[in-house]
Design goal:
single chain; alpha/beta; D-Maltodextrin-Binding Protein, domain 2; five-stranded mixed β-sheet; 10 helices; 10 strands; globular
């Protein structure tokens, strides 16, 4: 006679569907351009809450991170502050072909830690300051954009002796924040939620678009957590965080 007890098969299947993402949760190692620090940390927390996967973030200038990738650093995902270095990672065989996409469009800001200061192109032209902080234009895309702004304003030659270079956009920010430079070019994202100081959002026609690309590295090609992070970065939760920090997104 058939048993009157309900079958456990559907229940076990449902349990497996609900809990397998957590029981098999992994960790993804992500190299992150310094300008994206705060946004990346918030995305990593949301990614953990939604998928169970952990994220180990390493921050630096895009050039420094790319150099580490070419030296076999164990990163699985690369979030650059430009397109050029992810393209080079693909061309050099360090990244998965076809995995690259633009995750954010950066915005450059001239910033002073002193409140009430009027900042614009005339501020730079008047030169009433001793030091102007920028990120290293060779390794940091935001530093290259800052040089473009100065060149397009016809001010680079006159202001070059006053430039102090940080290894990354984070260090450029620190120079201004600690008073070691009166002014600095930083990312708008670094000022999100901060009321102190004064800022001028630099018109985007003064520098080339800062298209920030992500790419899946070869070490993450077969890693579930790495692939899940790349997908999550393109989803609505991550995009909302990215926009909250003042970045543009590509539709």
């Amino acid at each position: 006679m058939p048993s009157s007890k309900p079958s456990l098969g559907p229940l076990l299947t449902l349990a497996a569907m609900l809990f397998s993402p957590w029981s098999e949760a992994g960790e993804v190692m992500v190299a992150v351009a310094a300008n994206f620090t705060d946004a990346a940390r918030e995305i990593a927390a949301a990614f953990k809450a939604d998928t169970g996967h952990s994220t180990l973030l390493s921050f630096g200038s895009s050039g420094q991170l790319h150099a580490q990738i070419t030296q076999q650093a164990p990163f699985q995902v690369f979030l650059s502050a430009d397109q050029a270095r992810p393209v080079r990672a693909e061309a050099g065989g360090f990244a998965v072909p076809g995995s690259r996409f633009t995750y954010a469009v950066g915005k450059l800001v001239l910033w002073s830690a002193q409140a009430g200061v009027d900042l614009d192109a005339d501020t730079l032209a008047m030169g009433d300051f001793q030091r102007l902080a920028i990120a290293n234009p060779t390794t940091a895309p935001y530093g290259a954009a800052a040089v473009q702004v100065l060149e397009n304003l016809g001010l680079y030659q006159s202001l070059a002796p006053r430039l102090v270079q940080g290894n990354s956009i984070s260090q450029a920010y620190q120079f201004v924040d600690t008073g070691n430079a009166e002014l600095g070019f930083v990312s708008l994202a670094q000022l999100t939620g901060k009321d102190a100081g004064a800022q001028w959002v630099v018109p985007e026609d003064l520098y080339s678009p800062i298209l920030q690309d992500a790419v899946l590295l070869q070490s993450g090609a077969d890693d579930e957590a790495a692939r899940a992070f790349m997908a999550y970065l393109q989803g609505p939760q991550a995009r909302a965080i990215i926009e909250h920090y003042g970045y543009g997104v590509v539709e």
